[in-house]
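STRUCTURE:
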């Protein structure tokens, strides 16, 4: 089963996206910010990351840059969302 990491500071978005992906057959890991995402990636090595672009402390772009720098030999698929 493929794992998707969802990163969003809004609980409603995390729940909505998570439920949709679970119904589609994915294992879902949800976190509320970039720091938690970095820890989750170290633990679960997701196949894909869906991240909000506008979050406090660390934006989605900053998160993706850190993931690329830390995990150069392993890069999941990325998707971002935000207004």
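SEQUENCE:
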């Amino acid at each position: 089963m493929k794992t998707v990491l969802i990163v969003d500071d809004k609980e409603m978005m995390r729940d909505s996206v998570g439920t949709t992906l679970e119904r589609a057959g994915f294992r879902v890991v949800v976190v509320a910010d970039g720091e938690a995402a970095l820890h989750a990636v170290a633990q679960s090595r997701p196949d894909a990351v869906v991240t909000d672009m506008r979050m406090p402390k660390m934006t989605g772009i900053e998160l993706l840059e850190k993931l690329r720098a830390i995990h150069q030999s392993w890069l999941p698929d990325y998707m971002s969302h935000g207004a």
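REMARK: The helical segments are 11-23, 34-44, 60-70.
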